[in-house]
Amino acid sequence: MKKIVFAAMALLSLFSFKAADAQVSVSLGINIGSQPAWGPVGYDYARYYYMPDIDVYYSVPTHQYVYYQNNSWIKTSVLPARYGNFDPYQSYKVVINEKDPWVRNNFYRTKYATYKGRRDQIIIRDSRDEKYRNHWDNGKHKGWDKQKYKKQKNDDGDDDQGNGNGHGKGHGHKDKD
Fold it and tell me: In the prediction, which pLDDT does 90 show?
């Protein structure tokens, strides 16, 4: 009897462990809902954004900026005053899915130096893709619905985005180095 109880407990713990494993892998695969409205479109998962304009990282899961100050990397939810003129809606973001990318900051700074000043990236706020629906309440999309959009597009052949489709691929660069 003890063997049966022990075997049942071992089997039950094995199934519990596998179920927990599955939940973790699913939750790590998609984080569209937690990406900020100023993030680039085209990514189901983003761990960090690197912003070459200011040489700063943004952690999507923790909603924190990571910047260099006094010989160390600082994590904070708000950028310090020296970045006061920075607008994340108007800057280029590079998706980096690597743990602690600032450890290789010289690599990223060099690799993406040519992206400084670029303003051609489509952001989540401006996308009408269904997967970004939770961002539609940000004012730009308030009250927007598919039927009205389809009718407008059919009437004038454009989607009022100014680029002909509004579903850009994000122009972001996913980096898994």
Answer: 95
